[in-house]
Amino acid sequence: MRKKLRVRYLLPGMLVGGVAVAGLLTSGASVSQAATPPAPKAAGTVALKTATRAADNIITYHVPPSSYIAPGRTLFELNCSSCHGVDASGTARAPNLQGLGPATVDFWVSTGRMPLAVATAQPVQKPARFNRKETLQIVAFVNSLAPAAPDYPAGIPKVNLSAGDVVEGNSLFVLNCAGCHTITGAGDALSNGFFAPSLHKIYPRQIAEAIRTGPTQMPHFGPGNISDKQVADIVKYVTTSIQHPTNQGGLGLGGIGPVAEGFIGLLFGVGGIMLVAFWLGDRK
Amino acid sequence: MSDGTDVTSGNGAPAGVPITKFDDPHLQPYAKNPRRAEMLIGAILLIGLAGFCAYGGLYWVGGQTQWEAVFGGIGFFAFGFGLSAWGKYLLPQGPFVEDRHDLKSTEPEIEAMAAAIEDRGKMVFRRRGFLGTILGAGAGVMGVVITFPLIRSLGPQPKKTFDTTNWRSGSHVVDLDGRRIHRADLEVGGSLTVFPEGHQGSGVDQTMLIRADTKDITTLPGRDTWGPKGYLAYSKMCTHAGCPVGLYQQVAQQLLCPCHQSLFDVLTGGNPVFGPAPRPLPQLPLEIDSQGFLLAQAGYDQPVGPGFWERS
């Protein structure tokens, strides 16, 4: 009974334990990453009360001041014009930006997707190159070249989060968003190198911009399809339940579905059974 | 058998098989100090008992899923561990080897058996035609009778439900909330899941309404009027396995099925361009009424969803 455990019994145990701990750490890291965006302040009950208020000011659109146009031109010429052309009318390498409206330009620049670092099938989100003021200056310049087309918002949206309803947002999210972005908002692959990005690090303004302008493969949802109130519901849901999930079962494991869960289950379940089997069969 | 002679006594005598003695070391417990092991195992089992009690108590006062699982887990784990330890440390450690006698029959036994079969077989092993007939008849009737519940257990006959949907000529196109869709509602590049009015949420009727730029659309022969103002409507049920084909990729103008990655080209009549789907998505012919609302010219011209036996 009192006898040192031999290495050949310890080895599989250590292997299983080590990989399990590594897996837990990485999944824990992705969960804590998911929790970085700022938490919205309003609670669900407050939202329910205010949601019944008049439909005014749910989303307000604003355009940067015209004094931003001149510095915006400089920034655009330095950082954007080599692909989009000096008047943003597009080249063989990049599309025409005229008439896409302030919301489109703000989305692409403020999520760091533009300026492009590497040309892939789909630009990826990365830390923004410009601060808020510089971004608005670029927006002001591009917007000064041509008025926004009728199917694009004429300004940068500001969502009144207190008008959003999480429960409504949930059903709208399930119906319109979860197909590609998955039910946990972790994002997933599409076809031909395209993908639906994760929604865990995106601000309310950018969610509304994406819905209204349809970046890359995302459908373009106008107000006839998803109303301003419904946009506020979705934004509210994404900034609460998606970005701050309450994982009732314990660890969220990144919210990427049965692969991660099965991996952990196999490691702990089969690994544990292996250890017990070694212990049971261990005779002198 | 009849004369009582024991012709097949065999050589199964226990001679030569060793009898285990009680001071055999194999009979001793594995634990060097059984008393201490017993106390330890008892303590483990007590922990398990406490775990189960805590689980029950927690359940009684209202319950909290995670803690219930923790306490129940402690109970089961401690009991399992305790029982395993009991078997390992306190029961005879073995291993035990039992010798057995020679299984092969002796020559005289084999001969006697052969003689007996030859002698009595004329009477015992003859054909029983009467019983065989009854058995065959019974099995036949059973086979026929058992077929009926077996077929019925497959459920009600689908009849024509696979072939048709609730889309009729003049069905208004509505969203999940029952709101009629106006021709100004969708932007180019927009998509929406729609239903025939009065059947919101019906699985078989769900349809992807997409608005494309009219100049991009390749109209198939006979479908010239099906996509007014660039509005295209395709069944949302994949023709492969019936999953919802809701992943609309706006620039590629493709519908992606999340289950098996079938890709359908929106602009060329829902043609499958990748994946296991065998047929294009059925297209719903649309028209716009005088007030600008979308409605169906007719129902689907073919069964929607995956294939089935009777599908023509």
Plain-language structure description:
The complex is a heterodimer of chains A (284) and B (312). Chain A has three domains: 7-32 and 252-281, no CATH class; 38-61 and 164-202 and 217-243, Cytochrome Bc1 Complex, Chain D, domain 2 (Orthogonal Bundle), CATH 1.10.760; 64-154, Cytochrome Bc1 Complex, Chain D, domain 2, CATH 1.10.760. Helices cover 49% and strands 4% of the residues of chain A. Chain A contains eleven helices and four strands, in the order ααβααααβααββααα. A two-stranded antiparallel sheet of chain A has the order 1-2. Mean pLDDT of chain A is 82; it is low at 27-54. By secondary structure, chain B is an alpha+beta fold. Among the domains of chain B are: 25-90; 173-296, Rieske Iron-sulfur Protein, CATH 2.102.10. Chain B has helices at 34-61, 65-90, 107-124, 129-152; strands at residues 173-174, 191-196, 207-211, 231-235, 247-249, 254-256, 263-265, 271-274, 286-288, 294-296. In chain B, the strands form three sheets. Chain B has a four-stranded antiparallel sheet, with no helix packed on it. In chain B, strands 5-6-7-8 form a four-stranded antiparallel sheet, with no helix packed on it. In chain B, strand 7 and strand 8 form a beta hairpin. In chain B, helix 1 (34-61) packs antiparallel against helix 2. Chain B is flat, with a radius of gyration of 39 Å. Residues 1-10 of chain B have low confidence and may be disordered. Chains A and B meet through helix 11 of A and helix 2, strand 2 and strand 5 of B.
